[in-house]
Amino acid sequence: MSDNTPDNEQTHQPTTTLAKQRTRFRAGWNRMVNTPEALSDRRIRKWSELLETVILSVATLITAWAGYQAGQWNSLQTAMNVEAHTLQLQSGVLDSRAGQLQLIDFAAFSSWASAMADGNTTKARLHEAQFRDEFRVAFAAWLATDPLRDPDASGTPFEMPEYRLQLKDDAARLRLQAETINISAIEAGDTADQYTLSVVILAGALLLAGLASRFEWEELRAIVVIMALLILLGTVVMVIILPMAD
Fold it and tell me: What residue ranges do the domains of the chain occupy?
């Protein structure tokens, strides 16, 4: 028993010494890595990584949505421009037909006036019977003013407010519709541009969030992340305010 005790003590002494050294090293390391500055850096890094993940995820989703909406509004603008152009063409056709009808009325009235000037009332009545319905209303109103005797009366039925061509009214209505659609098309284009702008701004937020992880200075990293977050929030608000395409 007495012979083995010294050997055991000699065997345990180095082990005990090594354990103490390890304990002192760990304590020193913990004191070094657990300084207030180190703890603060770890907290900043943790929150920065979390915010970077949120920014990248949300910005990617909003970018996809804004890009989709920009495409929809561009398509709507194109469709409106086509519709407005079609209405303008139709308006031009109606104006042309109205001009042709007006020439017919002019010719018919000239024939009537020539017959009356020659004193041929029978021929004048024949020409009057050939008047178009729209012109006949204005002609009757004109005759009621006694133009042959009253110098203050209108010189021709074409100066009467009753002389109206439905085709001209239809053409004016189509032009008004075309102008209204053109305005809507411009607004649709502006909306598409705003969605496109939001995509560009979101690209900046994505860039900042991606670069933030490359900064070793945690405070600078946090500042860059906060900037990216503010840009993201502002863009999200802008996208929410913008109208959505049907």
Answer: 47-241
